[in-house]
Design brief:
A hairpin with a 5-residue loop joins β8 and β9. The chain is built from 3 helices and 11 strands. About 20% of the residues lie in helices and about 40% in strands. The protein has one domain: 2,3-Dihydroxybiphenyl 1,2-Dioxygenase, domain 1, CATH 3.10.180. The N and C termini lie far apart (about 55 Å). It is globular, with a radius of gyration of 16 Å.
Length: about 170
């Protein structure tokens, strides 16, 4: 069997959407030893070009990041009802939302390749407070999950944390 060259080179992040961020942080950290977590808040004041299903749509989320288990874990709690995260939570309850994969040939090239395959529109996209572009592409028909792609600027600096868990 012949294999095509890899389109993705590694798993960067696994993300769950949750209904109560701090309850999940407590469970992950205190009961399973998965932590510590950095908590960030993204909304129209610090995120631009927020796109939902091809249309500009401002939304509000709080998220937590943890580097554990050889991957970054992300928990997202929607704070407004007009996001894909809120829609996912209402439809499915808390659970796996997306997996972030590293494109083998860069952000622009993978977006072009996926567009050629019929996956041109981002499910969600924007530019966060650190200047990182991000896009979620619904690859469920091909791979069974939504993939997140991100394009950090050369000197990317993580936006300041709103909080940490456990508190430091």
């Amino acid at each position: 069997m012949e294999y095509s060259k890899p389109v993705f080179t590694k798993v960067n992040q696994i993300c769950m959407v949750v209904d109560d961020l701090y309850a999940y942080l407590k469970r992950f950290n205190d009961e399973y030893g998965i932590g510590p977590w950095v908590i960030l808040h993204f909304d129209p004041t610090n995120t631009t070009d927020m796109i939902l299903n091809g249309h500009y749509e401002d939304f509000d989320i709080r998220l937590a990041l943890c580097d554990a288990l050889n991957v970054q874990l992300e928990l997202i709690q929607p704070l407004s009802d007009n996001s894909n995260y809120a829609e996912f939570l209402h439809k499915n309850g808390p659970g796996l939302h997306h997996i972030s994969l590293e494109p083998a040939e860069g952000y622009a090239k993978i977006r072009e390749l996926l567009k050629e395959r019929g996956y041109g529109d981002a499910l969600i996209g924007g530019t966060d407070a650190g200047g990182m572009q991000f896009a979620y592409i619904d690859l469920r028909p091909d791979l069974g999950f939504v993939v997140e792609l991100f394009n950090p600027p050369e000197n990317f600096v993580m936006p300041p944390a709103e909080d940490t868990y456990p508190r430091q």
